[in-house]
Structure formats: C-alpha cells, structure tokens
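Field: COMPLEX_INPUT
Field: COMPONENT_COUNT = four
Field: RESIDUE_TOTAL = 592
Field: MODE = joint
Values follow.
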Amino acid sequence: MPGPTTVPVPLRWSDMDAYAHVNNVQYLRLLEDARVLGFREWFGPSPSMLDEGVVVTRHEIEYLAPLEYRSAPVVVRMWVTCTSPTGFTIGYQIADSTDPAAIVYAVATTGLALFDFTSLRPRRMSPAERAVLEGLTAPPPTFRWRER
Amino acid sequence: MPGPTTVPVPLRWSDMDAYAHVNNVQYLRLLEDARVLGFREWFGPSPSMLDEGVVVTRHEIEYLAPLEYRSAPVVVRMWVTCTSPTGFTIGYQIADSTDPAAIVYAVATTGLALFDFTSLRPRRMSPAERAVLEGLTAPPPTFRWRER
Amino acid sequence: MPGPTTVPVPLRWSDMDAYAHVNNVQYLRLLEDARVLGFREWFGPSPSMLDEGVVVTRHEIEYLAPLEYRSAPVVVRMWVTCTSPTGFTIGYQIADSTDPAAIVYAVATTGLALFDFTSLRPRRMSPAERAVLEGLTAPPPTFRWRER
Amino acid sequence: MPGPTTVPVPLRWSDMDAYAHVNNVQYLRLLEDARVLGFREWFGPSPSMLDEGVVVTRHEIEYLAPLEYRSAPVVVRMWVTCTSPTGFTIGYQIADSTDPAAIVYAVATTGLALFDFTSLRPRRMSPAERAVLEGLTAPPPTFRWRER
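Field: COMPLEX_OUTPUT
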C-alpha cells in the first residue's frame, strides 16, 4: 500500500488568534487547501473531477499540540479512509515536517459527497474515481477521545 | 431541564466562498462566536472563568443544509453534553431562527479542556463551574453518519 | 444635508490578531459588511442595483485608535464623497457608538466602479442611482497624513 | 539602487469570495504576509527589529486587474517609499510573477509607526534601522486615480 500523500501548506501570520497560536478553526482552513492541492495530485489538474465535484458533509478534528506561526509550511498527510457509491472520507494528519517521526499537531477526517455542480444534484462515483480512491485507502487516524 | 441557550450570530458577506454559500469552515467560526457570547450568559461577563480558561481539544460537525448569506443572524442552540474533572463538551445546532421547527443547518460538538492561562497548565473544574455546567447538560446532538 | 448613514457592525472574536487587537485588515472587512448593509438602506433590498453591480477599485484607510474585541457592534458612518458617470466613492468613519463625540477608530474611503455582472462589463450610472447618491454626498473624511 | 525585494506569497482557495475572484480585502492580507516574510530578509530572522516593533497606521491600495485562485504564488514587490524619525512607508506591487513585464494586480502603500511592544509606546528609529531602510528606498507606486 502506498503511503499518504504529503502536501506542504504554508501558514499565514493571521492564522494566529489573540492567544498567539494558530487558531483551532484555521486548522480546518489548512485542510481545505490541502484538499485543493492534493486533489490535483490525485485526479489531475483543474478542472478536476473532484475539485469541482464534491461537497463537505462532515469534519472531525482532534488537536494534539499547539502550533505557532512560522515561515516553513506544515505538512498535511492525506489519504482515503473509506468510499461509498456517493462519496468518500479523507483522513489527515497535520505534521511538522515530512519526517515520519515529526510532531503531529492534529488528526482529522472529512466526509465528502459527490456532487454535480452543473445539475446541482448528488452524483454517483465513476469507475475512474473509484480506482483512484481505492488505491489511496488506509485505516482512519486514531482519535484519542474515542478510546477513553 | 432547561432548554439550550440560544445565541444569535450574525453572518458576514465574506463567510461565503466561491460557491456563493457559507463556507463549511466558517460554520466553526460562527460556533466560536457563539461560545464567546454564550459563555458570558453561562458564567457572567468578562473576565469570565471560561472565556479565558479553556482550550479547544476537538470539534465534530455535520452539515445538514446549505446556508446563504443574509442580514438576519443565524441562531446557535448551545448546551453541555458531558463534563469531566478537566473539561467538558458542548453540543450545538445552527438553526435558521428561534422557532423550534426552524431549519437546522448543522449539528456539532466541541471538546474543551480547562486551562489556566496564567500558569499555562491544565486545571481542574471548580465546584462553581461544575454547578453551572451540570445545569446545562442534555444529550448530544444526533450525527447521521454514525447511524449508518 | 442629511447626516451619514450609521450601520452597526458586530465584531468577531477572531477579528483580533496575535497582538490581541482587531487586526488592521479586518477593519476593511468591517467596511465590506457596512457597505452590504448600508446599500440596502440606500437602494432597497436585494437584488439591489448596487449590491450586485459594483466592484471595488481602491481603498484608503487611516487608523486612529486601537480597537479591542467587545460584544457591542462598532458603528460605521458611511456617506458618498463623489460621483462620476461610471462610479462613486464612499467615505467612512468607524466609531465606538452613535454618539457624535464617540471615539473614531479609523477613517477610510472606497472607490467603486459600476459593473454589470451579467455582461461582465463596466456600466454607466442610472438617473435613479445618481439621485440617491447625490442626496448622500458630503466632504471626504480628513486624512491626517496628508496634512503633514 | 537595488530593485525591490520580491516575496512569493501563496494564495488560498478561501481568498476567493462569492464572485469567485480573490476578494479585495484579501489583497491586504497578502501584503501582511509579504511584510512578515520581507522583514526577515531586510532585518534578519525573528525576533526581528521590525517584525515585533511596528504598527500599521494607514493603507492605500488600488486594484488594477482581477485575480483568480491558482496554486502558484503571486509575487509581491516591496520597497521603502519614505522614512521619518518615527516610522516609514512601504510601497508594493502585487504581480503575477517575477518577470518585470508581468501583470500587476494591485499597487499599494502601508504607513508604519515604530512601536515598542514592551513599553507599549512609540519609539524612534535606530541608526541601524535607518541604514537598512534608506538602502531600500525608491519612489512610491503610481496611483491612477490621483492622476485624474
């Protein structure tokens, strides 16, 4: 099985909030850009099948370590945790670097529903999409709170 | 048992993304303001016990209906779903209005750890905090994806 | 001459940056919402002539006092400083309250070009638009730096 | 005289607004990051003299061309337009690339006042700061609207 896709995502100074750490909501913003960039790698350049063909149905995120602004990008590891006929789920880690032992700042999952932005209706997964996604599938990240 | 606290939260035009709907990440931004405003109601005006004494440890959110910008605020219903000696969890619904039958745009939960921003260390729940929070406790929102 | 339109604009906790003051860029975000809300007052409810028919061509803003997050909205005073056949300029003050003697946190102007979002082309001012805008015209705000 | 410092600044998908172009306010956000990155080049790594020792007193920006999201960074050209005993002004162009003939999306200036964040008081320019800034000085960008 291939490892996860790694996407460098630059921080912005404004990602910090009044506590001078990257704000918890901004972690989801970083994941948004990781998807935009990662989907190009998975599905080819825009107009990609998925860049314009999915809607977010859910997020789950767990924060593991505080993150301060720095000029070096964080690294988002991104993979597929499951697929269905009408959508799929992405798993992520936000890590300090590409080093496998790097600090992980957060783990998360995002549920996506396939959507046709022309007809404004849900759509079914194509065989080509399924082939790509199944090649990227691995177990979901471990959420600590569920283990308690 | 009392009902949830209802907090009107105004939208901004910029909450919309390139699809001309309120962006999924911005829903978490709306919940952040609901906490800031709701905590004043729960714990009194600033410097409140909690406004400056918690850190977010996790979020879970499920999107139920698209939301477009409008000048009328959305209404966040907000309550406590569980407490522990070192933190608590908030449940929310983002609703169209205070009408109990209003459209619900999203349901969510946020895990919070009690934190002392002076010593920069975790802290334990005070009896006064526990009394407030237990009076606000109700079952968590129902997440559809878990029922599948 | 009528006084300026006053638009209450709520702050968000996230408007603060790592210095724990409302970030300078967010002042422009507040003015964006003041325009959206103020234009309804000037031109009627959406789809308004202008809400969907202008593009921003320039901003100028001068910061006069630091602003901290609070739950009470700031008040944006907003008027027209000049018109042309293809656009107009708005003047603003961001004030602490509707009291004429309230602290002014910033003064600003925004240049707007009339635009037809259907044909994606610049357009000319209609007589109805001109009548509205000329009734709102007053001298521009005073920028201190220009006086040096 | 040396040319302006060129700072690549990545866009985010969320920089686009409901019109599917980079929102006018976000241009100022891009300039904020250009300053953070450019000041390191001018004054050395953090804690830099200026990264933590200035406050924004004014902005002026003129929009010249619409900008759409793309994965390639924009290039901010950044220089000093004037200095005083208590502050200085930066001039910028937001360009499509490092090519001197590249499309310029906006020109802008930012006024900065020197500030001591320890004493929370204005401060005077040090000889070392003056030496750096004077080596970076060039005429301000041309604003079209002033030429009318």
